[in-house]
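How a chain folds remains the central question behind the approach discussed here. In the encoding step, the backbone of a single protein was reduced to a row of integers, each denoting a local shape. We regard such an encoding as a compact summary of how the chain folds. The sequence in question and its structure tokens are set out directly beneath this paragraph:

___
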Amino acid sequence: MNYYTLLSLVLTLVQLCPCTPSKQKQSTKNTNQSFTAVRRVKRGWVWEPLFATEEQTPTQPLYVGQLKSDLDKQDGNLQYILTGEGAGSIFVIDEYSGKIHVIQKLDREKKSFYTLRAQAINRNTHLPVEPESEFIIKVRDINDHEPQFLDGPYVATIPEMSPEGTSVTQVTATDGDDPSYGNSARLLYSLIQGQPYFSVEPKTGVIRMSSQMDRETKDQYLVIIQAKDMVGQAGAFSATATVTINLSDINDNAPKFQQRLYYMSISEEAPVGTTIGRLMAEDSDIGENAAMNYFIEGDSTDVFDIITDNETQEGIILLKKRVDYESKRRYNVRAKVVNRYIDERFLEEGPFEDTTIVKINVQDVDEPPVFTLENYVMEIAEGAVSGSLVGVVTARDPDNDDSPVRYSIVHGMYLKRLFSINEHNGTIITTKPLDREIAAWHNITVTATETRNPEKISEANVYIQVLDVNDHAPEFPKYYETFVCENAFSGQLIQNISAVDQDDSAEGHHFFFSLAQEATNNSHFTVKDNQDNTAGIFTAKSGFSRQEHLSFYLPILILDNGTPPLTSTNTLTITVCDCDIEVNIFFCRYGAFMYSIGLSTEALVAVLACVLILLVFILAIVAIRQQQQKSLFSEKMEEFRENIVRYDDEGGGEEDTEAFDISALRTRTVMRTHRPRKNMTTEIHSLCRQSLQVGPDSAVFRQFILEKLEEANTDPSAPPYDSLQMYAFEGTGSLAGSLSSLGSNMSDVDQNYEYLMDWGPQFKQLASMYVSHRSVRD
């Protein structure tokens, strides 16, 4: 086995293009480090990586390194062979000396290393002297790429007044060179534009605040950042990026009123809720940081109010209570504005509020009279004589001129018939006595009008209560239908009674019941007062007879507790009933009715039977008369039908155009209008003459029309209206001839139906019938 000596290969860099002095110096420095030593091992070679620097396209082969065997006697017997990636196209080897050259440009960003195989053979025997071995050539990077900001341009936002050193954003640039070799991909960031407000960290690209900035002064900044490779050394490549930095708003400004004093006015007749004016406070902040709330301070809060317009951020002053020029002519209102959202970080700088004064003047207007009260309540006793005093209303003119006032009552003539008012002093009196039971309250409306300006009118409601007077005696609430059985025993309760009173009692009604004086000593009944506004009627004896007394009339005295007390006598009718002890109302009513008219039950049944028979007889007569009326109507209908005449007369065919012109009967000259019956004969004669003119020239046809006309004129049963007779006549001269056999001068025997056989299979059956029929006759 042969052992080989491993030789060191030296990489020589040759610059084929013009370069800067710095690059040439760098290339010369890297030349001695292009190749690493190759170590010899038993049975084959193991190659350490070789390095080649990427260059521009070489004008001549660029030396990379040399392969040499210890068996090479330099007599030309050994041949060096190079195979693998780029062998022959990118890398070539001198087969005699083993020197490797690169003949094309290398780009590390496209391919960073090449794997090759080397072999030494005997040129004469073509047998390998050295075993084939693999080695790697790595492409060493040079600074041939510029940095790039892939995410630019940048936009960042940071709150205003942020402290110094606050991070704003970070910019990042990339470099296509090899970051593991040299400084080609090592970037350094710097600030070109943006001082003294911002700074940038050289290695990370983080932009930071250098000072506090106010958005209200400037709200946007444009910063330019530069990135350089080669750690910023001379000759390095660079790139720039723009960063737009916006300052967001914070609430660091208090609202301020535009004026220290405002003047406004309001009419004294303005209703509640009227807008008096608007206040505007300025806030340099924006958005919700500029949102404000307005308030009113002091004694004016009862009269005025202020609300915030959220769209315009204005304070709207509203009238909360009506003002009066004669009472107060000017108001000094203290208004305050406060930020709605306050940043606690800036509270130490002062309160975020402001105040102003609003002077509001009340404008005088001619006001209507004012009543001393909005509603008056008065009382008067019922039954008071006409002209009685009810009360007095008072109104005055609130203006300085104090115009006289005239009073009147409105709302209905009915109230005017009950009350009247003195138009000068407002005294209300009655014009007729009042009845509380008809109306306990009267509501009237009184107006007060300025005599100097009648358009100024005001109203007041007057409620008049009619006080009750005990002027109605108590009475039964209803009619009592009372029965007593013939076999009733003494002391039996037969009826409970009560009483009502139309008057109103402040202490409540209390009624007392007793028998009238005239019935006390001669009565079959007694009254027991229950002390609860009711009383019971009891029998005073046993047994009653309808033959002796059918009814009893019991006078009952009722007394109320009014002042003065009133009494009334009410009569209770008690009917004797044919019963044992218990009263049956229906049976007793029936018995009393029969007994009063003097009829028995049998007699009543007989009367009802007679009434029923009479009713049936009347219904039968009505039915017969209806049947007779129907018969008369049928006969009249038959008479009407006799006037409808139908005639069948064959014409000359569809081509007969010289026959009777039916359109003539439909002309306006023939159609007669409705006229009185007295002129009917004249019009019928006229129609006849027109018909004779348009009809066929036939004496028979003309005679027929005249006869019908005569019948119509002399018929007493003719209907009371005109009837139009229409006749059609075909005429003569039709080319097709008549289809009728009437008047034909030919018989069937003379007819020849042989032509039917030529009509086709559709008429085969018809032809066979006629042809066969004629054959039989022949």
Remarks:
- Residues 1-49, 664-684, 729-736 have pLDDT under 50 and may be disordered.
